[in-house]
Amino acid sequence: MSILAKIFTLLRGTSTEAGQAVVDKNAIRILDQEMRDSATELAKSKEALTSVMAQRQLSANRGSTLLAKRKEYEGYVQGALAKGDENLAREVAVKLSDVERDLQSEATNVQGMDTSITSLKTAIRNTETQLTRLKQQINTVKATEAVQRAQSAVSARHSGANSKIGTALDSLERIKQRQEEQGARMEAAQQLEHESGDGDLQARLANAGLVNDPSNVDGILERLRGPQRAVIIDASTETPEQQKLLAAESLFGDRK
Amino acid sequence: MSHWTIEQLSQRLAEAFGSANVAVLEDAAGALQVVLAEAGDLEITLVASEDQIHVSTPLVAGAQVQDRAAFNEACMRLNPINPLSNLGLATVDGKDMYVVFGELSADSTEAQIVMEIRTLGVNAIDAIETLKPFLVHA
């Protein structure tokens, strides 16, 4: 089973809070163990590769020596034959045949070791890839664990007995509610503007100085009910408001 | 190791999202929370680890889903068309929680991280709006 499959099985098998902690611990433990196994395997493969490569070098050296020896013996055989010394030629040929057998054997050795070297290099590459993946998976599991711890911390921040993690669903509701509120506010504002159609007039009259503070309205009515009462008001009975008005009258020369 | 410390990240994100909306989670190492005002105060959790920055937000509790099989299939179909974020199922405090998450390289720039968070917010809201027919109706 692949490591991912093992972790997935663990994740599926447990859904309780305690289970979750066990999963996190186990996942890390499994991955750590796999990492150690892979690292051991990698070290072994590298050691084996070094040893095979050294043996191959020795074998190749022996091969070169044998090749030189073969050439040398061939020369001897040819020399002996040229001299017509059949016996000597045969004697050397026997040695040459030994050399050639050894040469073939070394060649077979080297070929075998080359195959080993290729497969060891492949194994090392695979183990290295495996180690990288394991490291990534450990980091992912650790990050997942950290994310879950963080999310638990977030849910703990929501005070109250029914503390609950805020989800996108809650946010969607909030957005809709805000949109509705916004819509309602805009509608209310429009309605208000509609209803107070004379509100605008009030504002313009106020700007033009034709209307006063509402608290003055009664005073104005009182003043204007009787003809020219204002001018006969005794200065001592005037309110500060009326005094200001009188001052204004005299300033602008309206009622002189 | 990430070239970001959680303090640096918190400071930079506070500039982008408002300091009131960014908090370092004291109970969880290397984690901080961003409240995304533009996405209905969606709470996004960011965890910076050795080689990645993980941002995630809860989509909906498993208990709120009416037909889990149908919902799962809808999630699988939605996932490939959801740019930058993934949908997943996690267990938080012993309960099934669907999550929307994204992963960034630990050497991501501030702009990339901010972009990831904003996209996550948009994706989460879009996803839940799309998946709402599968939920338990209150």
Largest interface: chains, residues each: A-B, 38 and 44 residues
**Low-pLDDT ranges of chain A:** none
Overall tally of structural domains of chain A: 3
Shape of chain A: rod-shaped
List keywords for this structure.
heterodimer; A: 256 residues; mainly alpha; Helix Hairpins; B: 138 residues; alpha+beta; Yope Regulator, Chain: A; six-stranded antiparallel beta sheet; 3 helices; 33% helix
Structure description:
The complex is a heterodimer of chains A (about 260) and B (about 140). Chain A has helices spanning about 5-15, 15-80, 85-155, 170-195, 195-205, 215-225, 230, 240-250. The model of chain A has no long low-confidence stretch (mean pLDDT about 80). Chain A has about 260 residues and is mainly α. Chain A is rod-shaped, with a radius of gyration of 53 Å. Chain A is built from eight helices and no strands. The N and C termini of chain B lie far apart (about 45 Å). Chain B has a six-stranded antiparallel sheet with strand order 1-2-3-4-6-5. The radius of gyration of chain B is 15 Å and the shape is elongated. Chain B is an alpha+beta fold. The relative contact order of chain B is 0.20. Chain B has helices at about 5-15, 70-80, 110-130; strands at about 20-25, 30-35, 40-50, 50-60, 85-90, 95-105. Chains A and B meet through α2, α3 and α4 of A and β2, β3, β4, β5 and β6 of B.
